[in-house]
């Protein structure tokens, strides 16, 4: 028996082990520590944060994952659970505008976060749509009122959890029979505004032409509660969670890969690390993607592994990090350059599963809000294009350089003159990199897609099927991907563990 194993198993209270220090894993660890549990987190990478990550090079700092988050109360609640005030850890900022949108014909639209300004902007672009916008807000608010308690505030583990009298009575109002796009077209006449509101389906990695209109709730959440940024860069969020975790006594070991979750007699009892050590645990929480976990970490579960492989992953992303020695006035903190043909773009990504020939390009320039993230007179551009989850059809090692050129040309056409001459630092991140760095099956950004009415019910549950003391947390389980949802997933899984394995006063279960 090695040193770590003997120390841990000698203690009367074995730790809860969390596999992965993504945001879901860190949230679960913090909630579990707040219950008085000993928590040990293993993260294979040298930096915590999972898909919320960071590159610092040549004087530039780039966030490489999320650039915006919604539902700020989720972060506030997480810190409050630990008796802390989030404002002592993080400076949360609303960014104005939430996004600047450009179309190939030169049309521009600013999605202001202040309602009177937003309404004025809608009126400027399409006066007849102002009325429709207010009706759309009322419609999405109604959906939020019904789905938030059932899907977000109390993530469910199966249909039985969902069959509440409230949901059964009001279920028909959540508009799950038509697509996001069909509903959006009902409220807005302007094709520009239709594209703006359809875009919210991509916040969970899905297609507006396939995912149920229920997901119009995403735009409501952003309009009602704001689109937020963390001063200093989004990675400050990971840093703050680590600081809180350390204050709570959570042991986070980076650069430490788990290669097997140990289970016997249908009970999880520890993990094996890549150096061969076995660490005993009272319970194990897997933050790694469940599809990867069933294939690589859990022996003897082939049926579930095969079932999960059949589920549709969310889209992936093709990313360019560009340090440029030029300030481009076309760019706001968040800028979208829309494609000419949105339906075609999504058909390429989700049906043909190939990169879109004319993709919508998202550019985030955090240096506009935090100048110290780039040298003076320079910008740190995070460029993201939705890409299909990995298939045999696309070999990114071969495709990436050409796709990169296409995106740069597109940005130059949209007014970022001579962009290629102004690139001082550059890094590409492909779907293959996302898969390899975070063990994200298919390189999926948000776990599973929500392109069908039933997708939410197909997600692997928080409590693993058939193995006690084993749980999942994060974008691959409930309630889904995206910063607030994976943080909520951490809270939900800790609540499940509290119910299943209550702690006695001496710290044992
Ligand atoms: C490019 C990009 C843009 C995005 N934009 C946004 C956005 O603007 N807003 C938003 O809200 N969300 C966004 N997201 C989604 C968001 O980042 C994710 O939903 C969220 O961060 C996922 O957190 P998670 O806890 O599910 O796990 P992950 O971030 O996937 O973390 C899992 C962790 O487990 C570790 N791990 C895996 N296997 C092992 C193992 N065997 N042993 C030890 N460790 C292991 C991984 O290294 C990783 O650190 C974006 C994601 C990407 C990639």
Characteristics of this structure?
19 strands; Polyamine Oxidase, Chain A, domain 2; 5-stranded parallel beta sheet; FAD/NAD(P)-binding domain; binds flavin-adenine dinucleotide; alpha/beta; 37% helix; disordered N terminus; 3 domains; 7-stranded mixed beta sheet; 509 residues
Walk me through this protein's architecture:
The protein has 509 residues and is an alpha/beta fold. The protein has 3 domains: 3-46 and 254-311 and 453-500, FAD/NAD(P)-binding domain, CATH 3.50.50; 51-112 and 315-445, Polyamine Oxidase, Chain A, domain 2, CATH 3.90.660; 114-225, no CATH class. 37% of the residues lie in helices and 18% in strands. It has 18 helices and 19 strands. The strands form 5 sheets. It has a 7-stranded mixed sheet with strand order 7-6-15-16-17-14-18. A hairpin with a 4-residue loop joins strand 11 and strand 12. Helix 2 packs parallel to helix 18 (483-500). The longest helix has 25 residues, at 129-153. It is globular. Mean pLDDT is 94; it is low at 1-12. The chain binds flavin-adenine dinucleotide.
Top CATH class of the largest domain = Alpha Beta
Overall form: globular
* Main beta sheet strand tally, sense and closure: 7 strands, mixed
Low-pLDDT residue intervals, each spanning 5 or more residues:
1-12
The mean pLDDT is: 94
Estimate the helix proportion, in percent: 25-40%
How many angstroms does the end-to-end distance come to?
24 Å
Class from helix and strand fractions: alpha/beta
User: How many domains would you count in the coordinates?
Assistant: 3
CATH superfamily of the largest domain: Protoporphyrinogen oxidase, mitochondrial, domain 2
Biggest sheet strand order reads 7-6-15-16-17-14-18
């Amino acid at each position: 028996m090695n040193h770590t194993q003997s120390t841990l198993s000698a203690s009367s209270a074995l730790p809860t082990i969390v596999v992965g220090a993504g945001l879901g894993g860190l949230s679960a660890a913090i909630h579990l520590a707040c219950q008085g549990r000993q928590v040990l987190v293993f993260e294979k990478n040298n930096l915590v944060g999972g898909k919320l990550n960071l590159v610092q090079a040549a004087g530039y700092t780039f966030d490489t994952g999320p650039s915006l988050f919604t539902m700020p109360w989720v972060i506030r609640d997480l810190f409050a659970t630990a008796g802390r005030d989030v404002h002592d850890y993080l400076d949360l900022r609303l960014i104005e505008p939430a996004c600047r949108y450009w179309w190939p014909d030169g049309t521009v639209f600013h999605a202001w976060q202040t309602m009177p300004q937003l309404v004025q902007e809608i009126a400027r672009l399409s006066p007849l749509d102002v009325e429709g916008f207010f009706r759309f807000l009322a419609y999405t608010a109604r959906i939020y009122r019904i789905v938030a308690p059932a899907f977000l505030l109390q993530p469910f583990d199966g249909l039985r959890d969902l069959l509440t009298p409230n949901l059964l009575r009001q279920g028909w109002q959540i508009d799950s029979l038509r697509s996001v796009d069909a509903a959006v077209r009902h409220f807005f006449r302007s094709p520009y505004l239709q594209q703006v509101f359809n875009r919210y389906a991509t916040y969970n990695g899905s297609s507006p032409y396939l995912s149920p209109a229920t997901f119009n709730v995403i735009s409501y959440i952003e309009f009602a509660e704001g689109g937020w940024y963390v001063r200093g860069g989004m990675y400050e969020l990971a840093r703050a969670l680590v600081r809180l975790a350390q204050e709570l006594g959570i042991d986070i070991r980076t650069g430490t890969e788990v290669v097997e979750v140990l289970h016997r007699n249908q009970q999880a009892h520890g993990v094996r690390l890549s150096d061969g050590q076995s660490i005993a645990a009272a319970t194990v929480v897997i933050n790694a993607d469940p599809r990867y976990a069933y294939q690589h970490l859990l022996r003897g579960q082939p049926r579930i592994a095969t079932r999960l492989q059949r589920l549709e992953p969310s889209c992936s992303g093709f990313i360019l990090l560009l340090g440029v020695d030029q300030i481009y006035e076309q760019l706001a903190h968040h800028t979208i350059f829309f494609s000419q043909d949105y339906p075609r773009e999504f058909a390429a990504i989700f049906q043909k599963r190939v990169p879109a020939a004319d993709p919508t390009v998202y550019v985030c320039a955090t240096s506009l809000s935090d100048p110290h993230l780039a040298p003076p007179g320079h910008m740190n551009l995070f460029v993201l294009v939705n890409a299909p989850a990995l298939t045999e059809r696309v070999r990114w090692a071969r495709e990436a350089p050409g796709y990169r050129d296409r995106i740069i040309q597109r940005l130059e056409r949209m007014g970022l003159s001579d962009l290629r001459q102004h690139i001082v630092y550059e890094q590409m991140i492909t779907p293959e990199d996302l898969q390899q760095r975070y063990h994200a099956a298919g390189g999926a950004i948000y776990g599973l897609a929500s392109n069908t009415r039933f997708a939410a019910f197909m997600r692997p549950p928080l409590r693993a099927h058939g193995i006690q003391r084993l749980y999942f947390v994060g974008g691959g389980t409930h309630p889904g991907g995206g910063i607030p949802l994976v943080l909520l997933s951490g809270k939900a899984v800790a609540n499940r563990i509290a119910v299943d394995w209550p702690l006695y006063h001496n710290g044992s279960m």
